[in-house]
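Morning F.,

Quick status update on the modeling queue. The single chain you submitted on Monday has been processed. Sequence for confirmation:
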Amino acid sequence: MNVFSKYLLKSMTEKKGRTLLLLISIAISAALLVASLGSIKALLSTLSAQVKGNLGEFNIQISASRNVDVPLFDPNSIKDSDIKKSFKEIDFGGYISSDSEKEFRIAGTTLSDFNNFGTMRLIKKGDLEPFTGRKLIISQNASKKLNVKLGDELKLTILGKEASYKIVGISTNKGLFFGEKEKQFNFVTPQENIFSIYGVKNKYSVMLASVSSKDLGAWIKNFNEKNKGNNIVASQTYDEKSLEQQLNMIRMPLFFMLGIVLIMTTFIIYSSFKLIIIERLSVIGVFLSQGATKGGIIKILLRESLAYGVIGGIIGDLIGAGLTVLISFFANPLKEYGVEATTEFYIPYFVIGFIFAVVLSAASTLVPILSIRKLPVKDVILNTISTTNKISIRSFIVGIVFIVITIILHFIGGRFNYVTSLPAILLGFIGIIVVIPKLVDILCYPLVRALRNVSGLSMISFNNVRTSRVLINNIRLIVVSVIAIVMITSLSVSITEVVQGAYDGMNFDVMVSGNSNFSKNIDEIINGYEDADTIHANGMIMTNLDGDSTKSLTLVYIEPEKYKTFENYTVFKDKVKQLDELKSHEDGIIISKQMSLRYNIKQGDTITLSTDDKKETFKVLSIFNAKMMDNGNYNLISSQAALKHFDVKYSSQYFISTKVPAKQAEKALEKKLKGLGVSIITKAEMAKNNKENNKIMTNVLGIFSYITMVIGAFGIIGNVSISFIQRKKDIAVISSAGLSRAGRGYMIMLESVFQALIGIVISLLAAWGINVCLEDVFKLLTIDLKLRFPYESVGTIVIAVLALMILTSLSTLFKSKKLQIVQELKYE
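Structure tokens below.
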């Protein structure tokens, strides 16, 4: 048996193409699993590292509550706190006098507080002490971008007044200086300079604090209850659980692609090992004639399978690591601040990926390897094994049953909040794959009979496709590949259309989002803008249902009367009546259908919503369909309700419909709001940015759908080779009766075209059905996304599949030319 083992090793290294196919297939499956598991942890690790690297030990943020006009508070009024260390600042905004496009946020503090902020370290310092007068500390980044150095004077404009500040310190790009952009900077100055702007003394915008409590949630709740009368609110600087919930949406499409690649990989490994065994039958026969046992040969083949799994697992882990880095890069929310994703790899995920690869390889090869036990020893030794082409009706019936169950689950899904959608799509996929052999038989049999008296060669080609299990597996690979491509294309097209549809349905030209520190100023300026036709002001309040941090509910506070004409994207049962009711009920809420389904909330229910410092009760007045607006987490309350329940006096977003072109209005508003820390963007720019953000993930999925197609192509090459080896004797018999080389080539090419056409028809019909089931999966996730079938891509898919089948048949075409008829028929 050692001789046979050496033969196997030699065979593995000689058949480099097949070995590479197996390893790539296994590796990609393992890589997707590692990336699906590790990407979220890697992103959280990046964000955690950045927060800790910039905020240091500060884990609590204290600020004024939202019901005050000027959001400042006196830290001396804080009651009963066990704060170890703190940093206090009072901030304002402005712009660089020499370049009005370069804005800044300037924080007033003391030198002792600056030193308490451990992550900010002065690299250069000059006339720093005493820290009074028109002095300025800037970052390395600002020094470089503004081309200034220690000791230089920098002219700043605040509230239209220009003043010169002397640069007395240059700090690392950490702490307050983190997050600077190309034209947005952060400066530090003695607090007296900002006190004078506000006309206050010893009052601050924010206090960062360090507390040693093991339960920060309980500490915050206790703090807010004690300081409720002081209009002071504490919150966590960083909530990892909430962030993980948001990032989990990245994981779902990766697991989805893993499922598709897994089906492809199983087919390919199965087909490849079937080819391996067919090619080695003569050698196996020799070893059996010399006394080797079937059991011994099976054990050696299983070792070969495990070897592929081990090598594929190692490669998969390496690819998975790269893919995790890639996803971390694209999905990194801090990328715009110049922060690179510092990926930390979680070893257990790589162990899981490796074990998965080994198990996948072994499981996929069991059937072809164990089939050796059923082969007659005599036929193996003489290499006279024949194949049976009988297609079982049982599998067809099972497949039909699965498809029927899928249809039933789809129609009853709404009654069970679409929890049936996942089993439905899985059973549907399996059902489609299982019915293909008999379906091809049913479709082709009438054509075979019709072609019998027309073209014998065409009839043989059609009959081969109808009866050959191996060629039918090619059709299965085509179906899986095309379904994957159609689904990804459909998803990409639908998201693009939904985003554009949402913006088209909103009545505004320019959007202004404001900094809460200057809310009163911003509100006055925008409402005084002379070229505004209509202004719809709103804002968002992040709450939790029943105090559960895993049940987030986003409140959008609106002016109900103006909202009637603001947007027509969302769907109301009776928009005017529902909004009038909201206007007259300060304790009312219109909840989205998506959140209603997710949290089992019904019209008329009373719900409790919590923030860091509030716990408020609302009555559900009605339900509306928010569609894809904020992924369905879009729930309406009135501005009066926001003031009553959450002390919110001003809006944070202003959607302005203008009398002048959007770009002109944007420039005018930028000039008026200069230095107040606002973001101004046109509707067209918002739609474009949203489209680009969505395109990142669909591009990643698109790459894997085409990788699936490539893997499928290699699998088809293997299947075509198996089919040729199995049918060599039959082809030799026909050739001995007069079939020319050109005729053999015509037959093989015709088979490829038939496989492509049948595969395309089945896959497009199946993809339509799978898309319907996928919509249900999105409804389960409370995402109201209507998937549009990409009819415009059908032509490209048809051409691609035809080209793929023709190209993959070329190797078999060349082999058929070298067919030795006498050699194949020597035992006849």
